[in-house]
Each structure stands twice: as structure tokens, then as C-alpha cells.
Design brief:
heterodimer; A: 251 residues; 2 domains; two-stranded antiparallel sheet; 44% helix; globular; B: 161 residues; eight-stranded mixed sheet; two-stranded parallel ribbon; 5 helices; 29% strand
């Protein structure tokens, strides 16, 4: 089978890994805010195709029980997804969509964290430094977040698909190139939410606050949203994200 | 309250021992629901409870206090572990049980990718001989400081508080 990115068979592990490294290099060339949005958008789409081919090799490694190779390919999957999310951050900033840019940057950071659990070297540490610098330069220093508490169903295992309480897989462990999570969870009851500086999920930001006259203000852009709330006595209206549900690609 | 260093905090109190079923009483360690929910008919187990049990059960006799239907998820930056109860008879039989269990919890957190500096909250109960009350230790601090629990708990049990 001819592969768009990995060439023709026979495929060897070293060749697959080298192709991933070369691809990271090419994507990294665009991972700067001043690069062309058109080229960045094309790369974002192309990364989906690349990951699809990479996953075919990962599935082969899983089937052959070559766990080390499956994990190494999972590292590249997460690293490349992290670069893809940071490209999305630049696009969102350039399109004046700061909230989406924040979410993309947090996605990039979460993918990077998982990639780092498998392999740690200069290339990914440089990428990590870029994400830290982006957060410092692009977003306010003192952001506030929601920290909700809720009761939920137990859900299913992302690795084997069975109800989570009945399998042997452990949440947040990496199994042959996949991250175990509880999926298909339903929230039964919201309990409370606290406003915190250090949340579990930094996507749960406070997005709007009211000024002294009750005008709602976007907390990232500081622009009035046009909405007016009842003026509260020594109180402020706040709007925020309680739960971010977009799944990341850890399968 | 015992201050162990600037990052970790250990508080010792006394609390009623949860009623154990005959099966649970034969285990070494019991995973409890949130202590505030113990008096209610609807027990709420921390979202880390099932994974911790799966990880630990190959090394210690561990079980839940009651069957569970749902989980309680507290989504702050701290890792909320379920409260755990050390059964009195098990501690008499195995004096290393607290150390072994804490070591398992530390390994569980490390293997699930948590850093040494990640903030964690854990309550440990040690059943006193008569079973009516337990010594309760609340830990808030980094993963790297969890090993301080063993000595603090031993000292609290020795003092009988």
C-alpha cells in the first residue's frame, strides 16, 4: 500500500520514526505567528491526514504487541497534535477570536504533557517553552477560572469500551499507545462551582464580567459585549465556562 | 494541626468509624465515600476511587465501603483521593500496612503522570481497637510529601487521638 507521507512498503520502524521527525520539522517551520495563515490552515488540515496514516502504523504495532513502538508513535501523535493546536492558536489570534485561541493553546499544552510522559528531549522542551511564552505574551497574567464539582455516572473505558468499573484499565495510564480515560459520562447533578486561580481544566475560564453600570465586558478583550445586566449593589455579574467537553485525540 | 513544611499540611482529628459490613471488615483497607456523604443515603465516591482500587488491589486487600453507582468529581487543580480506612485487625496483623498503602498511592499517582509537586488531598482513618471511633489524618500538599503521613499517623495513634 502506497502511503502519502510514509512512502512505499516495506516499512521499518526506524523509517516511520524518521518520517515523523521530518514532519514535525516541516510543521514547526509554520509554528510562528507571522507565518501565512493560508499555509498554516493547510498544514492544520494536512496534519489530520498525517495522523490518520500514523495511526495505521500504531494499530499495526498494537496488533503485533510491540508496545514500545506503539508508545513511541503515540508520542509523535500527541506532539504533532500539539503543534496543530498551536497553529490553530495563531490563526484564532489573527482572526480576533481570543477565547478560541485560549482553548487551542490549552489543547496544545495538554497534548504536549502527554507526549512528554513518553519521551523527553530538547525538541519537545523547545516546543514547551514556546507554549509557555505564548501564554505569557498573548493572554492576561491573572486569569480566573471555574472549578466545578458534580456527580456523574462512572462511564466506560476508552481502551476496551466496557463499563469502567469492570475492566482492569486505570484512568490516565498509557496502554500501548493510547491514554485511558472514562468516556460516555453523564452528569447527574451539579454540586457547586468555585472561582479559582488554579483549575483542573484551564479551559473553564470566566469570560465576561459586568462593570459598575451593569454592562457586560469581555474579560479577554475588555470590549463591552452589548449586553446589560441589572446593576447589583456591591456585586458583579460573571459569565464563564463550567465544563469544556471537546474530546482530545488520545486514541 | 501539624505543619511539616511550607507546602504540606497535616491535620489530626477524631471521627466516628463508619460501620463496616462483615465482608469489608475482613479487608485491610477500605475506600470510603466522601466523609460528608457518609450520613446520607447517597454515598459519593471520589472520581479517583475506582482507578486507585484497581491499582492497589494486587498488592493489598482493598475494597469499597459500599457498592457505588456514580462518582463525585471535584475539578480543582488538586487531586482528590478517596478517604481510606485502615482496619484495626489488619494493622495488628501487618504493622507495615500504612507504609505499604501510602507507597502504593504514591506509585499510583506517579504512574498516572502526576508530578511530584502536584497538589493532592487525602484523608486516612485508623480504626481504634473498640471500633467506635477512628483517628483521622487529613493531608493537603504535594505528591512528594505524602510519605510524611506514615510517621504522623503512627504518632497520632500512639497518643490515642
Amino acid at each position: 500500500m502506497e502511503s502519502k507521507f510514509f512512502g512505499s512498503p516495506p516499512f521499518i520502524s526506524q523509517g516511520v520514526v524518521e518520517t515523523c521527525l521530518d514532519y514535525l520539522e516541516s510543521a514547526g517551520q509554520l509554528n510562528i505567528i507571522v507565518r501565512s495563515s493560508k499555509l498554516q490552515e493547510a498544514k492544520i488540515k494536512e496534519i489530520d491526514e498525517f495522523i490518520a496514516e500514523l495511526k495505521a502504523f500504531k494499530r499495526w504495532a498494537i496488533d503485533q504487541e510491540v508496545e514500545q513502538l506503539a508508545n513511541e508513535l503515540f508520542h509523535f501523535q500527541c506532539f504533532i497534535r500539539s503543534v496543530q493546536s498551536s497553529l490553530e492558536t495563531w490563526i484564532n489570534i489573527k482572526n480576533s477570536e481570543p477565547e478560541s485561541a485560549w482553548h487551542s493553546l490549552m489543547d496544545a499544552s495538554e497534548y504536549k504533557d502527554i507526549a512528554l510522559r513518553i519521551n523527553d528531549y530538547e525538541g519537545i522542551r523547545k516546543h514547551e517553552a514556546l507554549l509557555i511564552d505564548a501564554r505569557r505574551l498573548l493572554f492576561p497574567e491573572n486569569m480566573t477560572f471555574n472549578s466545578p464539582a458534580f456527580r456523574s455516572t462512572i462511564g466506560d473505558c476508552s481502551i476496551c469500551g466496557t463499563p469502567f468499573q469492570f475492566c482492569d484499565h486505570i484512568e490516565d495510564f498509557i496502554y500501548s499507545g493510547r491514554l485511558c480515560r472514562r468516556i460516555n459520562i453523564s452528569i447527574i447533578e451539579a454540586n457547586h462551582s468555585a472561582i479559582v486561580k488554579n483549575p483542573r481544566d484551564p479551559r473553564c475560564i470566566m469570560t465576561e464580567r459586568s462593570d459598575e453600570d451593569g454592562n457586560m465586558i469581555n474579560m479577554l478583550t475588555l470590549e463591552p459585549t452589548g449586553e446589560k445586566r441589572e446593576k447589583g449593589h456591591k456585586a458583579m455579574h460573571l459569565t464563564g465556562i463550567l465544563l469544556a467537553t471537546k474530546p482530545l485525540d488520545f486514541d | 494541626m501539624t505543619k511539616t513544611d511550607s507546602n504540606e499540611r497535616i491535620t489530626i482529628t477524631s471521627t466516628p468509624t463508619p460501620a463496616l459490613s462483615e465482608t469489608a471488615a475482613k479487608k485491610d483497607v477500605i475506600i470510603l465515600p466522601e466523609l460528608a456523604s457518609l450520613g446520607s443515603g447517597s454515598h459519593a465516591y471520589a472520581s479517583t476511587s475506582i482507578s486507585l482500587k484497581k491499582y492497589a488491589e494486587t498488592q493489598v486487600e482493598i475494597d469499597f465501603l459500599t457498592p457505588m453507582d456514580d462518582l463525585y468529581d471535584q475539578r480543582s487543580s488538586a487531586i482528590y483521593l478517596p478517604p481510606i480506612l485502615f482496619v484495626a485487625q489488619a494493622l495488628i496483623d501487618n504493622q507495615e500496612l500504612v507504609k505499604t498503602t501510602i507507597d502504593i498511592i504514591i506509585a499510583f499517582l506517579r504512574d498516572s503522570g502526576k508530578s511530584e509537586s502536584a497538589s493532592v488531598e487525602l484523608s486516612c482513618l485508623v480504626e481504634e481497637k473498640e471500633g467506635a471511633r477512628s483517628v483521622k489524618l487529613d493531608y493537603k500538599g504535594p505528591v512528594g510529601g505524602l510519605s510524611a503521613i506514615e510517621a504522623a499517623l503512627k504518632e497520632a495513634v500512639r497518643r490515642g487521638k
